């Protein structure tokens, strides 16, 4: 800790991170051991976090992440969308297809930003807020491939007709962005994605990843 930082805030944030990393919650004693502080300090931290709905304790006394975290999480999408828009605009104009940023939302892939090309006669309509299972569509498949750490992948996923008849998609995952699983992709009306599009999508995903770090 330095003179410019708050020890109490640091401990509170560490509590949230520890609780986020477990599905079954942690007791005061377990938190005390992991943080290296006495139980009284942990009780105070939990009481403060509970007041803000960031932590809840079940009947057995185990602490878990509270629903207040969801409210904070909802504010992340606008920030991520803003950071991604320059790369998405460039991608859409370059390949003449609708570009999108997709993030994981539970077991679904959720489009949080969409940019359509300005110069094409027609393109696929795709809206922010559109969701689909992670195992369908290029956006979700790219995320799952990154999650599995597949070394032999070309760095992007290609699909045809999985979400919309006659439409093909290409997507590459965001890499190295802490706390965010997502992908950047395009969707176009064609039987197969042109060869140059896959690598271009990888470049765009890298740009977005850099902007979010």
UniProtKB/TrEMBL annotation:
PANTHER family: HELIX-TURN-HELIX TRANSCRIPTIONAL REGULATOR, ICLR FAMILY, HTH-TYPE TRANSCRIPTIONAL REPRESSOR ALLR. The keyword Transcription regulation applies. PROSITE patterns: HTH_ICLR, ICLR_ED. Residues 6-67 form the HTH iclR-type domain. Residues 68-213 form the IclR-ED domain. SMART domains: HTH_ICLR. This is Helix-turn-helix domain-containing protein. Gene3D superfamilies: 3.30.450.40, Winged helix-like DNA-binding domain superfamily/Winged helix DNA-binding domain (1.10.10.10). Pfam families: HTH_IclR (PF09339), IclR_C (PF01614). Keywords: DNA-binding, Transcription, Transcription regulation.
């Amino acid at each position: 800790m330095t003179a410019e930082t708050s020890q109490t805030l640091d401990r509170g944030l560490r509590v949230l991170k520890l609780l986020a990393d477990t599905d079954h919650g942690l007791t005061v004693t377990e938190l005390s051991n992991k943080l290296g502080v006495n139980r009284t300090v942990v009780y105070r931290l939990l009481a403060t976090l509970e007041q803000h709905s960031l932590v809840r304790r079940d009947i057995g006394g185990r602490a878990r992440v509270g629903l207040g975290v969801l409210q904070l999480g909802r504010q992340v999408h606008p920030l991520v969308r803003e950071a991604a828009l320059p790369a998405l605009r460039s991608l859409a104009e370059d390949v003449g297809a609708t570009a999108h940023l997709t993030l994981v939302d539970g077991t679904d892939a959720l489009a949080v930003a969409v940019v359509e090309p300005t110069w094409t006669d027609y393109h696929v309509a795709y809206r922010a807020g559109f969701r689909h299972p992670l195992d369908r569509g290029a956006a979700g498949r790219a995320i799952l491939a990154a999650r599995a750490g597949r070394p032999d992948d070309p760095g992007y996923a290609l699909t045809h007709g999985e979400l919309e008849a006659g439409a093909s998609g290409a997507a590459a995952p965001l890499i190295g962005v802490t706390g965010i699983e997502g992908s950047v992709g395009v969707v176009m009306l064609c039987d197969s994605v042109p060869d140059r599009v896959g690598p271009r999508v990888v470049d765009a995903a890298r740009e977005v990843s850099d902007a979010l770090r």
